[in-house]
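Fill in residues.
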């Protein structure tokens, strides 16, 4: 047993030493650098794709259409300079780092401004679920960003892998929250903009960190040189983990509350013995939280019934809720019996 543990420790140490000493050929590093430098340059193609993907994503968010938002994700080019930023930081390449950072800042600023203008002129009275969902980031979003960044970095060092595969994965995490920041500013909804900004920074740091790790593991930069930059990136990511963890545990609590609330309504109230519940949704941003219930019934739901249900939930759940019923009437239609037909 002891010998087995020692062998495992030696294997781990050997792999770690290989990682420290692993280094690809200089011409391959220069090839990667030149490709990243080209991707991080602001040109007409980059600007057109930023503006086009922003318009599509903003309109998709306003129309609450997931399909349209996915279309914007595919063409968004923000993933390109992020890889340059990661590689430039690891290698200490000031030119590449500066170009990549400038491209990210310019692209982000343009997208926020355009989304703000679109949101202001459209002037929707309230936003849909696609927008609201991007104002509450949590640890799951960081996990998605890290996985997407790893795919992006790996696709760059392995040319046989399609670049569009990584582009789609990264764009998923970046353009929509930027547009939500602008939409929040268009209605001076600070909580929405701040939440979307946190999501954007989470994705940006997660993607950058995993790109760095990919370049390190594949031998494109030595561990000795990368240690300091990796430390700073991990430190900034760790700071973001605090609010993301709070949001994650709040998400779990809300999910449990929603399940308990639904069980209480269905099993312990007379009203829901006479109606059919089709769907339910809780808006936790409202104070108190709003529960929207889509029901079908033969009898109307009265305001007094709603008031009594709210009082019941307050006592049962320990906090107030606002109930909003969307009622569809049930009409029974039967085939005619022989007695209904008149003989000719």
């Amino acid at each position: 047993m002891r010998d087995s543990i020692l062998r495992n420790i030696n294997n781990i140490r050997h792999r770690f030493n290989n990682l420290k000493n692993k280094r690809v050929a200089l011409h391959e590093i220069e090839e990667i650098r030149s490709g990243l430098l080209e991707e991080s340059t602001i040109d007409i193609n980059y600007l057109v794709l930023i503006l086009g993907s922003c318009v599509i994503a903003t309109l998709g968010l306003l129309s609450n259409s997931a399909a349209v938002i996915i279309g914007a994700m595919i063409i968004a080019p923000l993933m390109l300079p992020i890889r340059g930023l990661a590689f430039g930081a690891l290698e200490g390449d000031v030119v590449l780092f500066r170009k990549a950072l400038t491209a990210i800042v310019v692209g982000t600023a343009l997208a926020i401004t355009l989304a703000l203008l679109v949101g202001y002129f459209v002037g929707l009275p309230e936003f849909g679920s696609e927008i609201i969902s991007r104002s509450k980031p949590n640890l799951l979003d960081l996990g998605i960003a890290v996985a997407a960044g790893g795919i992006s970095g790996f696709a760059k060092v392995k040319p046989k892998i399609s670049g569009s595969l990584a582009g789609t994965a990264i764009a998923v995490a970046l353009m929509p929250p930027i547009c939500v920041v602008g939409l929040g500013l268009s209605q001076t909804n600070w909580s929405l903009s701040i939440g979307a900004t946190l999501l954007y920074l989470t994705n940006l740091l997660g993607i950058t960190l995993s790109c760095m790790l990919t370049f390190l593991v594949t031998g494109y930069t030595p561990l000795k040189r990368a240690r300091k930059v990796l430390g700073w990136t991990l430190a900034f990511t760790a700071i973001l983990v605090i609010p993301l963890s709070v949001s994650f545990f709040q998400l779990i609590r809300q999910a449990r509350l929603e399940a308990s609330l639904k069980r209480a309504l269905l099993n312990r109230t007379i009203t829901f013995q006479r109606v059919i519940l089709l769907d339910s949704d809780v808006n936790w941003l409202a104070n108190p939280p709003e529960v929207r219930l889509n029901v079908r019934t033969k009898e109307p739901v009265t305001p007094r019934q709603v008031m009594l249900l709210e009082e019941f939930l307050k006592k049962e759940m320990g906090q107030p809720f606002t109930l909003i019923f969307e009622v569809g009437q049930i009409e029974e239609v039967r085939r005619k019996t022989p007695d209904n037909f008149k003989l000719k």
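Residues 223-268 form the longest helix (46 residues).
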